Amino acid sequence: MSTRPPRRVLVVGGSTAGSTALRELRRRGFDGRLTLLDPLDGTHRPPLSKAVLADAAHEASVLMDLGSLDVVRVPSAAASLDVDARVVTEVDGGEHGYDALLVATGGRARRLATAGQDGELVLRTVADARLLRERLAAAASVVVVGAGFLGLEVATAARRTAATVTVIDPEPPLVRLLGDHLATVLVGRATDYGITLRRSAVRLHGSPVRGVELDDGSVLEADVVVTCAGDVPETAWLEGSGVAAPQGVPVDASCRSRRDGVWAAGDVAAPVVDGVAVRRPLWANAVTQGRVAAASMLGQEVDAPVLDDYAWTEVAGTSLKVVGRLPCSGTPRVLEESADGGRLLAFGADTVAAVGLRRPVPRLRRALAELKASGA
After folding, report:
1. Pairing of strands 141-145, 224-227
2. Which of 69, 179, 235, 249 could bridge 327 with an S-S bond, Cβ 3.0-4.6 Å?
3. 8 Å CB contact between 126 and 47
4. Coiled-coil regions in this chain (predicted)?
C-alpha cells in the first residue's frame, strides 16, 4: 500500500461527505490539486424534507459553496473506475487520474414503481423537493409510503397543506430505528398532529400513480403518493473495480476501501464493524466520514470514529436529538424537563435523547459522558 502523500485528490460526489472531505483536506494543509466530479450541485439534504418543502426561499441555502477551496469542478457523472491505472472515466469519455480517490456518490431513492409505471414521487434532490412542494400545495390527500425519519418528516410537511395524510409501513413506525419508547413518543405526536399511520405492505396503484394497493387487496387513493422507502448506494459505476459490494463500499475505520488509493464516505460507504459491513445513511455519518477520509488520505491521525452516534429528526413540530446507542431499550430516566413538556432522557449510560427540548449536540455529548463516568 502506498504511503506517499497524494498530490492529486479526486472526489466523486459533492454533497455532505464529499464537500466535508474537500474542506477538511484544505484545513489540514493539502495544497495539491483537488478535483470534484459531480453532475449536480452538492446538496445539504436534511433541510429538503423540512425547510425546503415549506418554502421555496430556502432552496439556495442547501447548496454547497466550495468557492474558497480552489477546487476544479467537473459537472459530469462517473462511468467507471480503473483502480490499477488510478483513472476515473466520465460518462462522456473524459478521464481523471488521481493519487487518492474518495467515493462519495451517496445513494439514490429506493423506488417501488414497476416497469413502465409513471408518476412515483421521491425526495432526494432539490428538484425532487421543488416538485413535491408544488404537488402538496394542490393536494387534498397524501399517502406516504415508509414510516422512517424521512417519511414522517414528509408527512409533517404534507399535513400543513393537505386535508388528509396517511403514512403506511409494514413495520411498526420508527421502532427499528429508535426503540419502543422514543418511537411511541413521536408516533403519538404525529397522530395528534392529524397524521394517520397504517401497517401494511403496499404496491403503487395506477399509472400515473394515484394511490396504493394494501396487502388486504383494498386500494387507498390519493392526490399525491410519496415513496420514502430508504435509499440504494450509488455503486453501478464501480462495477468490475473490486471496490463495491451489494451493501455499498466496505471501508475500515479510516474510510479506506479494500483497494489501494480508494476511500469512501457518506451514504455509499459501509464501515466494517465486527466483520460485518454496515451502511448507516445518516447526515452525521456523512460528516464524520468525510473528515476521517481526509485525514487518512494525508497520512494524518484519524481522531474521529467512522460511525457517529448522533441522529436527529423533527416530526409534527417535535424535535428529537439523540446521542448514543440506537435503538434504545428500557424505560428512560428524566434528566431535565421544560414547562412545555420537553424532556432530556437517559437510557442507562448508553443514550441521551432531547425530545421537544432544544439542546446543542455538544451539551448532549457531555451529558452522556457524565453518565458513563458515573456508571449510571
Report:
1. parallel
2. 179
3. no
4. none
Radius of gyration of the chain (CA): 22
Catalogue the long-range contacts made by 238-242 (C-beta closer than 8 Å, 24 or more residues apart): 238/81, 238/103, 239/80, 240/80, 241/80, 241/81, 241/82, 241/83, 242/83
Work out the average pLDDT over 24-51: 94
Give the residue among 52, 349, 355, 375 at the shortest CA–CA distance from 188.
Answer: 355
Digit-coded pLDDT (tens) for 286-342: 999 999 999 999 999 998 999 999 999 999 999 999 999 999 999 999 999 999 999
Using DSSP bridges, classify how beta strands 8-12 and 33-37 pair: parallel, antiparallel or unpaired.
parallel
Give the CA distances from residue 229 to residues 152, 169, 180, 292, in Å, rounded to whole numbers and listed in that order.
11, 9, 20, 29
| Number of continuous H segments (helices) and E segments (strands) in the chain | 8, 25
Which pLDDT value is given to residue 376?
63
- Interatomic CA distance for residues 333 and 345, integer angstroms: 6
The rounded mean pLDDT for the chain is: 95
Q: Which residue type occupies 67? A: G
Q: How large is the average pLDDT for residues 107-126?
A: 95
Domains of the chain: 8-108+231-297 (3.50.50.60), 126-227 (3.50.50.60), 317-374 (no CATH)
Joined grid coordinates for residue 314: 423533527
Q: Please name which of 148, 155, 120 lies closest in space to residue 227, comparing C-alpha atoms.
A: 120
DSSP string, 145-199: E--SHHHHHHHHHHHTT-SEEEEEESS-TTHHHH-HHHHHHHHHHHHHTTEEEEE
Convert the pLDDT of each residue in 260-273 to its tens digit: 999 999 999 999 99
Hey, is 134 helix, strand or coil? helix
Specify whether the CB–CB gap between 42 and 15 falls below 8 A: yes
Angle at 7 between CA 6 and CA 9, to 5 degrees: 75
Residue 262: phi, psi to the nearest 5?
A: -120, 125
Give 3's pLDDT tier (boundaries 50, 70, 90): low
